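Why does residue order matter? Because the sequence determines the fold. Keep that principle in mind as you read this record.
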Amino acid sequence: MLSVITPRSAALLVFAGALATLTGAWLFEFLGYAPCELCLWQRWAYYAALPLAVLAAISAPSHPVLARSWLGVLAILWLGSMAFGVYHAGVEWKWWLGPSTCGNQPDFSGGLPDLGKPVILCDTAAIRILGLSLAGWNALISLGLAVVSMAGMRSQGSSSVSQ
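Structure:
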């Protein structure tokens, strides 16, 4: 299926996937699963991807090379997002330490913490679905979006000639 994807359809799939993932994150937040600092940082890839995917989709019909370039940027963005999701999941599984601002040890280097805000630990998964935390799901979703971006980038679109 991905071998016949056009740059425009890949960009639209990336846009839909990013928007659906952000919507899911906001829904979990609405349901009471407060995000930690690393969770919020992981969303930046999705925020950046939305306008980039729109640019790729808009440019695809008249400028396919430009669209494929935008998809290349998106592929790199998603691979970075996947790596960051793996990093955060590893922090949650206690495979390695996270930033000092996210652990259960108080850090007073920047002054006293804001006692009006709840403490959300980055090294504790708020929820696990099918054994994966939301950080783990972010890694898988990001990998999938990277694959779609790369498939669209490699595609010659509908203007290619069969040999």
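The chain is about 60% helix and 0% strand.
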